[in-house]
UniProtKB/TrEMBL annotation:
Organism superkingdom: Eukaryota
Keywords: Fatty acid metabolism, Isomerase, Lipid metabolism, Lyase, Multifunctional enzyme, NAD, Oxidoreductase, Peroxisome
Organism annotation: Salvia divinorum
Domain spans labelled 3-hydroxyacyl-CoA dehydrogenase C-terminal: 491-584, 625-701
PROSITE patterns membership: 3HCDH, ENOYL_COA_HYDRATASE
Family: In the N-terminal section; belongs to the enoyl-CoA hydratase/isomerase family. In the central section; belongs to the 3-hydroxyacyl-CoA dehydrogenase family.
InterPro entries linked: 3-OHacyl-CoA_DH_CS, 3-OHacyl-CoA_DH_NAD-bd, 3HC_DH_C, 6-PGluconate_DH-like_C_sf, ClpP/crotonase-like_dom_sf, Enoyl-CoA_hyd/isom_CS, Enoyl-CoA_hydra/iso, NAD(P)-bd_dom_sf
Pfam families membership: 3HCDH (PF00725), 3HCDH_N (PF02737), ECH_1 (PF00378)
Quaternary organization: Monomer.
Protein name: Altered inheritance of mitochondria protein 1
Domain 3-hydroxyacyl-CoA dehydrogenase NAD binding: 310-488
Length: 724
């Protein structure tokens, strides 16, 4: 791999072009800052240099500060490796340099990359360049003056939107806002930037130091008001993390006391934030997601993904229509098969609804939407299956039906066609039992709503070929999902690890804990819904079906709550029919429904598990632990059986499939912050008090007694080896 470097070329026109080169995105590695200082010193010294154009190699300006440095800081705790660049590079070298700098932006200018550009005296960009300050997604704030210069260039409200919500914009939008001075065709970028730099020297264009500008900031009372509102919004949208409020503090400091004060505070706060749990969790989540694309014996054996141009989907219900939507939005042709024309029409209408919904929420251009809708064709038989590259079956969770469909498609499709199922629980070997095509059978497990949720769990059996796995991973990436390859077992990785989530909530409820207290605590912890509200949203039928399946496979540790059956008997089915644990009214937050309380009492009486007939007394922290430690326990079994390639895959899957808070790093990372020993001892205590549901797994016990983190690689058992 080529070393990161900074190159300088001086033209006859007296402009030095300084280029950041660190493929693939010109990340700002530590040596890049040294290189910049060195080249700038030379440029300032040389008499034949009048001005500087700063740019990036190979069509990209810079993707920002090198995130590997954060990882090193977290691992070592050694803050001395972090260079001070805000004053020494952005202010002293670029902004206060005695010769002007124009940044020539193309491809992307993100994070620290954009901050260097903000410190330049003008910015010229190629069309469609992505500009943004996404630092808050890594638990920190912009650290090279971004919090000070961005509001000064584009005004406070827009700057807050870009930073607090980590929302990137294009160079065209940047031009309208004043972030970019001109957008020019890519092939003219360098020429136009050089000319702009010379124009500054010749005083034909202004020499602007953005840190000194105040014209776009508004009056002090206005600023105070905007920041106050932003604080309230951030408080609601971003719980349990410090960086949003810290970012607002720093911006406020700079506006009230001046840009340079702001820069000093920004540097200090940036360094403090790096070592917070939130930053550690978010950086871990970032690297975990990146690692999922490396699958031993699949991605590293020289295979190339085959083209998947046409996909048939069987079943146009909730999942089938969502999957079809995701495919057509990425230009993959879809054949949708249903059992009759009424259901087919319903499926097509659902796809239309999904696509038009994106348009009305301004997430998709109308032209693109119309084009996508031309990519789907409905059918009631298999005649259109003769040239499809992949089938995704998404019919109801019924074994004989799925077996029959797989036997049929084996005959109807070409021999190269991938035969995938969206089953959420059924063993894929069982589904493919009546075929001879085991090597091309695979699970394509999407999460609902399939066109929105980012996770694609790819389930391989012992017989699925590496080529088929790679092809599906590639399709996943094309349709903008994060594919995570897992092994075949009941519930696969995510549903398997999280099946105790709602069961422990029901167990606690029957031990006398208040239902709404449980939900409130879990959402305070950071999951979007508590376990009972989640059941309301999914519908109680799902809870009945999945409990049955998990009870069959893991009867030693399932808690069968009589409550759901009781609710269904009383005509309640959650949010779907407006009768759940909560009252759902349009435009307002769900409210606890007191009318479920008598049913809860009846359910408690039926199984009568409260010790001495009295509700147990538990702290808020214990409630969270009693719900999430059983999940960690099952996740340990998932690791032990080698269902995932690495522990961090389960972190990614828990974040993207279950919305586990990313700032906690994922289920295993979070568990390791608590410690295997504490989790083990707690589960052991509860299993003594409340039964086998809490019994610690062998893996957890071993890790706890030997003092090894749960995330450390598992000693692969023969079963795990066979699976992967
Ligand atoms: P659904 O009931 O909404 O849709 C199933 C559709 O399949 C129906 O429209 C039905 O008419 C159609 N169908 C049945 N037999 C067919 C056949 N022979 N040919 C063509 N179409 C046929 O079900 P769903 O919620 O979309 O679930 C589908 C699958 O996805 C199940 O295996 C389920 O376990 C899995 N899944 C569901 C979710 C979820 O949240 N609902 C999440 C992940 C996976």
């Amino acid at each position: 791999m080529r070393q990161p470097r900074v190159i300088m070329e001086v033209g006859d026109d007296g402009v030095a072009v300084i280029t950041i080169s660190n493929p693939p995105v010109n990340a700002l590695a530590l040596t890049i800052f040294d290189g910049l200082k060195e080249k700038y010193a030379e440029a300032m010294r040389r008499d034949d240099v009048k001005a500087v154009v700063l740019t990036g190699d190979a069509g990209k300006f810079s993707g920002g500060f090198d995130i590997n440095v954060f990882e090193r800081l977290h691992r070592t705790g050694d803050s001395s490796i972090l260079p001070e660049t805000s004053i020494s590079v952005a202010v002293n070298v670029i902004e206060d340099g005695k010769k002007p700098t124009v940044s020539a932006l193309q491809g992307l200018a993100l994070g620290g990359g954009l901050e260097l550009a903000l410190a330049s005296h003008a910015r010229i960009a190629a069309p469609n360049t992505l500009l943004g300050l996404p630092e808050l997604t890594l638990g920190v704030i912009p650290g090279s003056g971004g919090t000070q210069r961005l509001p000064r260039l584009i005004g406070l409200p827009k700057a807050l939107e870009l930073m607090l919500f980590s929302k990137p914009i294009t160079s065209e939008e940047g031009n309208d806002l004043g972030l970019v001075d001109a957008v020019v065709p890519s092939n003219e970028l360098l020429k136009a930037s050089r000319q702009w730099a010379l124009d500054i020297i010749e005083r034909r264009k202004p020499w602007i130091r953005s840190l000194h500008r105040i014209d776009k900031l508004g009056s002090l009372p206005e600023v105070v008001d905007i920041i106050k509102t932003a604080r309230q919004q951030a408080n609601q949208s971003f719980i349990n993390v410090p960086q949003h409020q810290a970012c607002l503090d720093v911006i406020e400091e700079g506006i009230i006391h001046g840009g340079y004060h702001g820069i000093l505070k920004e540097s200090k706060v940036f360094k403090d934030l790096i070592f917070t749990d939130a930053s550690k969790g978010l950086v871990h989540a970032f690297f975990s997601q990146r690692a999922t694309s490396k699958v031993p014996n699949v991605s590293d054996i020289g295979l190339k993904p085959r083209k998947i141009l046409k996909v048939a989907i069987i079943g146009g219900g909730l999942m089938g229509s969502g999957i079809a939507t995701a495919l057509i939005l990425s230009d993959i042709y879809v054949i949708l098969k249903e059992i009759n024309s009424e259901y087919l029409l319903k499926g097509i209408k659902a796809i239309e609804g999904n696509v038009r919904g994106l348009v009305s929420r301004k997430r998709l251009a109308k032209v693109k939407a119309e084009k996508a809708l031309l990519m789907v064709k409905g059918t009631l038989d298999y005649s259109d299956f003769k040239d499809v590259d992949m089938v995704i079956e998404a019919v109801v969770e019924h074994i004989p039906l799925k077996q029959k469909i797989f036997a049929d498609i084996e005959k109807a499709c070409p021999p190269h066609c991938i035969l995938a199922s969206n089953t959420s629980t059924i063993d894929l070997n069982v589904i493919g039992e009546k075929t001879k095509s085991q090597d091309r059978i695979i699970g394509a497990h999407f999460f609902s709503p399939a066109h929105v949720m980012p996770l694609l769990e790819i389930v391989r059996t012992e017989k699925t070929s590496a080529q088929v796995i790679l092809d599906l991973m590639n399709v996943g990436k094309i349709i903008k999902k994060v594919p995570v390859v897992v092994g075949n077992c009941t519930g696969f990785a995510v549903n398997r690890a999280f099946f105790p989530y709602s069961q422990s909530a029901h167990l606690l409820l029957h031990l006398g804990v208040d239902i709404f207290r449980i939900d409130q605590l879990i959402s305070n912890f950071g999951l979007p819904f508590g376990p009972f509200q989640l059941q309301d949203v999914a519908g109680y039928g799902v809870a009945v079906a999945t409990t049955k399946i998990f009870h069959t496979s893991f009867s030693d540790r399932t808690f069968q709550s009589p409550l759901v059956g009781l609710l269904l008997k009383n005509g309640r089915n959650g949010k779907n029919n407006g009768k759940g644990y909560y009252i759902y009214e349009k435009g307002s937050k769900p409210k606890p429904d007191p009318s479920v309380l008598p049913m809860i009492e009846e359910s408690r009486r039926t199984i009568n598990i409260m010790p001495g007939g009295k509700p147990i007394s538990v702290t808020d922290e214990e409630i969270i632990q009693m719900i999430l430690f059983p999940v960690v326990n099952e996740a340990c079994r998932v690791l032990d059986e080698g269902v995932v390639v690495r522990a961090s895959d389960l972190d990614t899957a828990s974040i993207l499939g279950m919305s586990f808070p990313s700032y906690r790093g994922g289920i295993i990372f979070w568990a390791d912050t608590i410690g295997a020993d504490i989790i083990y001892k707690s589960l052991q205590k509860w299993s003594g008090l409340y039964g086998n549901f809490f019994r610690p797994s062998r893996y957890l016990e071993e890790r706890a007694t030997r003092g090894i983190p749960l995330s450390a690689p598992a000693a692969t058992s023969p079963a795990a080896k066979a699976r992967l």
